[in-house]
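queue> holo job accepted (NDP)
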Amino acid sequence: MAKDEVDLFVIGGGSGGVRAARIAAGHGASVALAEEYRLGGTCVIRGCVPKKLMVYASRFRDEFEDARGFGWDVGEPRFDWSVLKRNRDTEIRRLEGIYRSLLQTSGVEIHEERATIADANTVALASGRRIRARHILVAVGATPSLDPPIPGGELAITSNEVFDLESRPDRILIIGGGYIAVEFAGIFAGLGSETTLLHRGDKLLRGFDEDLRDGLGEAYAKRGIGLALGTTLERIARDGRVLQATLSDGRTLPFDAILVATGRRPHTAGLGLEGVGVATDEIGAIPVDLHSRSAVPSIWAVGDVTNRANLTPIAIREGHAFADTVFGGRPTAVDHGLIPTGVFSTPEIGTVGMSESTARSRHGGDVVIFKASFRPMKATISGRDERTLMKIVVHGSTDRVLGVHVLGHDAGEMIQLAAVAVGMGATKADFDRTVAVHPTAAEEFVTMRTPFVTKKSVAVG
Ligand code: NDP
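queue> job finished
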């Protein structure tokens, strides 16, 4: 029999909500959780995980081509979208099941329906039931934004629908210059779609180190991705099965799909927050304090709905910290200060800490840059025209490493470990003392001795 009163009601079964529910239950709280779509949330169902599977799929093209230089005859590889989609969807269903059983074994009661806030201590379910809760945690995440509306905008898809496409579009237009646009441009180009990436700015990935931005732009151009920079989409019109996109530069171009990835907005509309005195900000985010508490003491919020740092590992930390604070007797605040991140473009990006321009704006001339741009060893025999870029930003007077940036294979894997060192306050001398792992690309981090190294010779022995 479902409970009418619980210690904690979590609205949203994504990364942050599930973690909070499980940890709170582990602390002895009675917990219920509502999810209106699928357990696992954006990351598992239509974000990080299925995206990464598609990134893997898209990179086989390079592998097949490169294999020839190493003596392999791989014939004419053919790609079947339906096989990828089926296997990906099966894996996502498996993960969804794991999320469900994790909640169930923790004793969390699951309501697979929409929940809204009726008052500071009551949740109303779509089925009409009302459940009293000592605490309510809002973990509803964010949803793709389609601002500003343009004529024919409803013909475009977002990162929600992209996973439902039944076939690979032969020609795709992707709008945006952020994580999602850049990642999907790499995916579709790798899978063989003629890909155009349109962005209002003059470079991709605003906020990232300029060398990474330049390097990615060059790499994408080399990979045959059409870059329409400093351009906006003005209108979309259907012409039979084709979508005609009119751009601000006056061109009208035909596409089979148009993906809009111009940011995400907190999913708070209609949740009942205003009625209980939780005012949201101009984009709909819930303002919270260090412990994720809103202006109403019994209502808390974690993850993308708070628009602090919109990344899964942060939502998980915030959910865990909330549960420890409220039910574990251990007030815990999440440090949002140093957040490493990966962009799963091809080539990939890994970054932690300050970009060169941020460091210079804070420390003026007291910044030393170490840079290496080299052809990765594998590309020597494969003949692939690509570069790896690695960069360390150092505070001159203290020798402290302020930022580490990578563009190239396994950048995300590399940056995870570099982030440990940067988080510990490593100096450039600490990097220099570390013995290289040879032959790797990552060894460049510990062998860069001279500011602005530009060339790596392929070492022998
Ligand atoms: P981002 O905020 O990363 O990028 C949005 C992009 O859209 C920017 O290039 C922005 O341009 C552009 N844009 C915004 N509004 C408009 C507009 N009205 N017209 C034209 N262009 C516009 O959002 P995403 O949608 O790519 O991703 C959402 C979030 O998901 C990210 O913030 C990230 O935290 C998370 N994410 C993380 C991933 C990872 O960790 N690998 C992968 C995917 C998503 P401008 O730069 O000029 O503002």
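queue> Confidence is low (pLDDT under 50) at residues 453-461.
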